[in-house]
Amino acid sequence: MTVTAPVLFLLLLGALGLALAAGAAPGHLWLPVLQAVYARYRRRLSGNNRLSVLLRGRRVILLFSPGCPPGRCLELARAMGARDSRFLPLVHGVACRLPSRALRRVPGGLAISEARARADTRAMLVHVEDDVPIFASDLPFLDWLCRRRTLSGQQVPWGVERIEAPAAWPQSRGEGVRVAVMDTGIDLRHPDLQDRLRPGYNALRPGSRPQDDNGHGTHVAGTVAATDNGIGVVGVAPRALLHPVKVLDRWGSGLLSDLVEGMRWCAENGMQVVNMSFGTTQDSRTLREAVRRLRDAGAVIVAAAGNEGPPGEGQRSSVTYPARYPEVIAVSAVDVEDHTARFSSRGPEVDVAAPGVGIPSTWPGGRYRSLSGTSMAAPHVSGVAALVLAAGGDLSPDEVRARITGTAEDLGLPPAEQGAGLVNARRAVAG
After folding, report:
1. Where do the Peptidase S8/S53 domain residues begin and end (predicted)?
2. CA dist 429 to 150, 169, 384, 385, Å?
3. Among the options 92, 216, 219, 243, which is catalytic?
4. Residue range(s) of every CATH 3.40.50.200 domain in the chain
5. Residue 302 needs a FRET pair 20 to 30 A away by CA distance; which of 112, 131, 220, 267 works?
C-alpha cells in the first residue's frame, strides 16, 4: 500500500479525533495513538524520503581518510554543496545534507558525482552512504493499550525473577558499574531511577539534558537498574549506575549520525555496558565501524535483536543492526511460558534470549507501565552484564559475553530463536 502525505494526515487526524471523542485529555491518550499511527509509516517519513530530499537535500555520511584533519573534512564537504554539516570523530566522517546533483548511484551504494569530485576530494573521501533512520525496538501499536499505573509497595518484575537475578544479589548488585542507556533519554526525576542516575549526553541537542520525552528509555532503564527502595519495581542490577544517552526523539526514532555521536560519548567516558534497544534493517559501514571502536574502548554492547518476526522466504536472518554485528550481544525475546515471542527476530546472530513480553518497568512521571518487544529483553542482559562486571573484576567484553552465553539456560528452542538459551543471572555471576 502506498501512503501519500494527505492519507497520512487524515490517519493522524482521525486518530486524534477518536481519542478526543473518547474524552481523552490532551497529552494522555491521543499522543500514544498518534505515536502508533506514526510508527506504522515512519520508515516512509524518516531519513531520505522524497519530499525531504527535494526540499533540503539528501542526508548522508561522508567517511574520510584518517589522515584528513577534521577541519579539512568539513571544508571538502562544503565544497560538494553540503549543509547542516557535523563532524563525527568516532568514525572520522561528516554527517550532512547534500543536493541530489552531488550524488550518483553506484553498485552497493552512493558516490559523489564526477562534477563535484575534485582531485583532493577523491584522494581523501573513503565512503559515502545514507544517514539511515534508527527505530526503537518496541511495539508502539500496542503501547497505548497498556495503561500507565502506580504501584503500591515494590514488585520484582516477572522477567527479573525468571532470569534468577534475586538469587545473584547476595554476590552482586552491579555496584558502581557504568551502564549507558542509549535511547530516548531517561525521566531524570523518577523515584525509582534518580538515585542511580549519573551524567549523560543528548546527541540530538548537545548541551541539553537527556530528558525522556517518549517513555521508551525510562522503561529500558528501569529493567536494567531500578532501585531496590521498597517502591515500584526493582531492576536486574539495582546498584548499577545509569548514564542516559539520548539518541532517539519523542517518536522513538533517530538518525545513524546521532547514534554515532552517542557512541562517541560512551567511548570517551568509559561506559562499561551499553544498551541499545533499537535497530535498523539496513547494514552500514559507518555503524559497523562505530560499533567496533566502541567495543575496542572496552564496552560490553547489548542490542535488541529486532521485532521483525521470522525471516522472509529465502532469508537466513531477520535480526536487525547493530545486533547482527559480531561485537554485539544480540538478544531475542521470550514470553512468560518460555516460548519465543511471535514478533522476535530470528537468525544465527542471536546470542541469548530474555523476557520481552508484558514487562513492567518505570515510566515518566513517576509511573509504571508494561511493554513488549526485544527492546524490553535487551536490558535484562545489560543488567546481567553489570552484575558480572561488579562480581568478576576486570573482565574484557569477550569474557563477559562468554560468561553470559556459557551459563544460559537451554529452553529447547532452535538456536536461531534462543541463541545459547535464556540468560541466567545467578549462573553468570557464579561463573
Report:
1. 174-421
2. 32, 9, 8, 9
3. 216
4. 135-430
5. 131
Report CA-CA distances (Å) from 297 to 32, 292, 294, 381.
Answer: 37, 9, 5, 20
63, containing H or E segment: strand 58-64
216 catalytic? Reply is yes
Eight-class DSSP state of 408: P
- DSSP assignment, residue 246? E
What does the alpha-carbon distance between residue 271 and residue 61 come to, in Å, rounded to a whole number? 25
Catalytic residue among 192, 375, 380, 382: 375
* Domain 50-131 architecture: 2-Layer Sandwich (3.30)
**Can you spell out the DSSP letters for 12-48?**
HHHHHHHHHHTTPPTTTTHHHHHHHHHHHHHHHHSSS
Do 171 and 386 meet the contact criterion of CB atoms below 8 Å apart?
no
| 380 counts as catalytic | no
CATH of domain 135-430: 3.40.50.200
- What are φ and ψ of residue 329, in 5° steps? -85, 110
CATH 3.30.70 in the chain is located at 50-131
Q: Spot the catalytic one: 131, 138, 143, 183.
A: 183
* Residues 177, 295: Cα–Cα separation, whole Å: 16
* pLDDT tens series, the chain, 431 aa: 334 444 445 555 554 454 444 444 444 444 444 444 444 444 444 454 444 433 346 899 999 999 999 999 999 999 888 999 999 999 999 999 998 777 766 566 667 765 455 656 777 999 999 999 999 976 654 444 444 455 557 899 999 999 999 999 999 999 999 999 999 999 999 999 999 999 999 999 999 999 999 999 999 999 999 999 999 999 999 999 999 999 999 999 999 999 999 999 999 999 999 999 999 999 999 999 999 999 999 999 999 999 999 999 999 999 999 999 999 999 999 999 999 999 999 999 999 999 999 999 999 999 999 999 999 999 999 999 999 999 987 899 999 999 999 999 999 999 999 999 999 999 999 98
